[in-house]
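Try it yourself: sequence plus pyridoxal-5'-phosphate, in.
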Amino acid sequence: MTILQLPGWADVAAAAQRIEGYAHRTPVMTSRTVNEAFAADVFFKCENFQRMGAFKFRGAMNALSQFSPEQRAAGVVTFSSGNHAQAIALAAKLLDIPATIIMPHDAPAAKVAATRGYGGNVVVYDRYTEDREHIGRELAEKHRLTLIPPYDHPHVIAGQGTAAKELIDEVGALDVLFVCLGGGGLLSGSALAARHLAPECEIYGVEPEAGNDGQQSFRTGQIVHIDTPKTIADGAQTQHLGQYTFPLIQQNVDDILTVADDELIASMKFLAERMKIVVEPTGCLGFAAARARKESLQGKKVGIIISGGNVDISRYAEFIAS
Ligand SMILES: *Cc1c(COP(=O)(O)O)cnc(C)c1O
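Structure, out:
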């Protein structure tokens, strides 16, 4: 068995320096309505305003900036139908690295177009008959490409942690932090930052009720695998945590909470109506969990990471109208 070298706070701090000038320092927003309803001070870290529309740019930029000259020349490969694809394509473009993105044949046309728009070379596969990891490894070997997965990589985790670092640097130590959870890159990185900068902070990961593999893993102490869950939170449809993200979550996170899709829709509407921000369903996970347990937050200083805003606009209109 290989022993993994888990990333730590120093890696998050180094990532912050590496991505400075490339990633946006996203705004922290507040709402008087929320503060009154919660009887708390609530701070929203708005990664929907990050480059390409989600925090994933942070991890991608941190990983690609550490490529050797040989790796840069050969290029990067990844598999994703979502925000990680666009993040890798954009970071690669900024660093002048060729990028190959493996996407399912039925990925939304808008996402394929956005990835191509950033200069990514999109390779399409049939998700019912082909295995994307196998295709990725084959391409990587044949062309000496470096594979950067969406969450289970120390450089990706450290990059994602810079969002919570910026939040706490700006507003001071938090009592509670809510973070959206898919494969755990954002949560494990954020937890490294929060544990260091605000040691007393309670840290919660939040996943969709239909896909609570993280909660099951956290409670049983073993990585639980599930079938692709049916949920509108498409950024959190992961089937399992990773070999890096799981131990970091075990070490640093207080609990994993879940929310139902209708709570995500209610939160999406609230964020649009009251705060004028467009947030994708997955990006609402943290806020939805905070709303559901607001009594326990009275008098506290609460951080919520809004993870992204990439949602097909006609689909969004349907959510808002429902
Ligand atoms: C990827 C993603 C998540 C989940 O992040 P993990 O690092 O996989 O846990 C949450 N929200 C958005 C918008 C995402 O793109």
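One thing you can check immediately is this: The mean pLDDT is 95.
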